[in-house]
Design goal:
The complex is a heterodimer of chains A (256) and B (268). Chain A is mainly alpha-helical. Chain A contains 11 helices and no strands. Chain B has 268 residues and is an alpha/beta fold. A 6-stranded mixed β-sheet of chain B has the order 6-7-8-3-9-10, sandwiched between helices. In chain B, strands 2-1-4-5 form a 4-stranded antiparallel β-sheet, with helices on one face. In chain B, a hairpin with a 2-residue loop joins strand 4 and strand 5. The two termini of chain B are 21 Å apart. The chains are: A mainly alpha (256), B alpha/beta (268).
């Protein structure tokens, strides 16, 4: 668990770093495996220009902006749809087949179609981030709403709630923890999607673009630095989601 | 099967009337199960009625129909002359399982029914505090529901139900999940609250002891399909002594009625 990290947990990461450094010294080829310090230098100078493409921090900014926008669009559509599907059997039946057909298509597979429809630019990338975030949010929201205890709903009914109050005071707060889990998972997938999408035709910015661009220059230290930054940002957002979960929705784990 | 009520309570006016009530469930396999069959029952204002029966006799179904959470197949329930067709603002229900909203504080749970009626925060908190005092939980306003013991949670549920000032309190084995000691204490406290508020209470239980301790009248149901087997009057003064002769005699009588129902009927 969090907090106290036991020594055993850091043994393997340390071994990997040592192994990497030893291998880099033995191989002695920066175009195959750069030394640890070359990568660290790149990360420690995030404002330095990367071969005329912009700085590391600018690329990160582009990626984050895209993922946040695409994620918000996905959430704004998936949450209300999921609530509707979780509440109404007919509503669910109406949408379910379509969702089952589209769900297995990986977000990246939408890219050519997205480029054809929306042309090169932010819209086509936002579209596939939206696809990436949409399904986990939707499915978790449906589960969350269906999982609201029947007694909670019946108590509200006997106390005289109308439909709108039932939704805002019982269904949504009761489903919120699981919806939040869906948002966290959806954001994680959206982040993977944005990095992959930035490697495909049609982009000139972003961390995904930066690491592929660095590959074309044979600059492995920029590739690895970019990967590390992608990982750190991913962990950072996940941490943020978990913190909010622990603060706002602790009742879920404490209830029983 | 006749209601031979006499004495003080019979002078009170009838508040709840159940007439020819039947409930049939259709099963997945296309069959039909008769849960309740042709039931008639009246409750007078301020009366404490226990509905007692073997498990599966439809006593919870009966309570849910009274509460408007389920529809009867035939027959009807009237509250002060009004046919029940969905949850009524004049009745509140307390469930066996914990039903508090864990994302709300204790006071916001108690005030829930007032909140949905649009009563301003200060007013509803004032009322909620009165009921928290009644159930002996003053000081727990800001507590979280998961910090409370099972007995305390059910007391908060009682306060939440009372806060909307219902005419009738429907209780579905509310102490069923509690240990024996807590259960006895809760029964005692419930009577105390009932004597203070004088609500009509319909209390479902499968515990003979609980029914004899609490009720003015015990409605004993038959096995499925649930019918009224006998209505037993308990006129002993409260608080009742569980070891008293009269208590034991009534208890034995009710137990006999129940055990007749526990032996499988010759033909289903």
């Amino acid at each position: 668990m969090g907090g106290m990290r036991r020594p055993i947990a850091i043994i393997l990461p340390l071994l990997i770093l040592i192994g990497w450094e030893v291998a880099a010294i033995v191989i002695n080829n920066e175009f195959f495996l750069p030394k640890l310090e070359s990568v660290i230098t790149v990360i420690l100078h995030p404002t330095a220009d990367v071969f005329g493409s912009g700085s590391l921090i600018e690329h990160a900014g582009f990626s984050i902006e895209r993922v946040v926008l695409g994620f918000i669009i996905g959430a704004v559509i998936a949450v209300p749809l999921g609530v509707g599907m979780g509440r109404s059997h007919r509503f669910e039946e109406f949408f379910d087949t379509t969702i089952q057909i589209f769900r297995p298509i990986p977000p990246i597979a939408w890219l050519p179609l997205s480029l054809a429809w929306f042309k090169i630019g932010i819209t086509s990338i936002l579209f596939i981030i939206f696809i990436g975030a949409f399904f986990p949010i939707l499915l978790n929201t449906i589960d969350a709403v269906k999982g609201v205890k029947r007694t909670w709903i019946e108590v509200a009914a006997t106390l005289g709630t109308n439909e709108r109050q039932l939704l805002s005071k019982v269904i949504l707060p009761g489903a919120a923890p699981t919806i939040w889990t869906g948002l966290r998972v959806g954001f994680g997938i959206a982040w993977m999607t944005v990095v992959a999408a930035e490697m495909l035709p049609g982009t000139s910015h972003g961390l995904g673009y930066m690491i592929l661009y660095s590959y074309n220059f044979g600059q492995i230290q920029y590739i690895i630095a970019g990967m590390i930054v992608i990982g750190i940002i991913g962990i950072g957002f996940d941490f943020l989601f978990k913190e909010i979960e622990n603060k706002r929705f602790s009742w879920r784990s404490l209830e029983r | 099967m006749s209601d031979k009520a006499s004495g003080g309570l019979s002078e009170q006016r009838i508040i709840l009337e159940i007439r020819h009530l039947s409930k049939t469930f259709s099963t997945d396999t296309g069959g039909e199960v008769v849960a309740l069959s042709d039931m008639d029952l009246t409750a007078r204002e301020g009366e404490f009625i226990c509905i007692l029966g073997p498990s599966g006799c439809g006593k919870t179904t009966l309570l849910r129909i009274i509460g408007g959470l389920e529809k009867a197949t035939s027959g009807e329930v009237q509250l002060e002359g009004q046919v029940i067709d969905g949850p009524s603002p004049y009745m509140a229900m307390i469930f066996q399982e914990y039903s508090l909203y864990p994302w709300r504080t204790v006071i916001d749970n108690v005030a829930f029914g007032l909140e949905v009626r649009g009563i301003p925060r200060n007013d509803r908190y004032r009322i909620a505090r009165q009921y928290l005092a009644l159930i002996g939980l003053t000081g727990f306003e800001e507590s979280r529901t998961y910090e409370l013991s099972g007995g305390m949670r059910q007391r908060v549920a009682v306060a939440r139900a009372l806060a909307i000032e219902p005419r009738v309190l429907l209780m579905d084995e509310p102490f069923g999940a509690l240990d024996a000691q807590t259960r006895n204490r809760m029964q005692f406290e419930l009577l105390h609250i009932w004597e203070k508020t004088r609500k009509t209470v319909i209390f479902v239980t499968h515990s003979v002891d609980e029914a004899v301790f609490l009720a003015d009248r015990i409605v004993v149901l038959t096995r499925r399909p649930g019918r009224i087997k006998e209505i037993v009057e308990v006129s002993e003064t409260r608080p009742r002594e569980r070891t008293a002769q009269a208590f034991i005699a009534i208890r034995r009588h009710v137990l006999d009625l129940i055990s007749e129902e526990s032996t499988p009927p010759s033909k289903v």
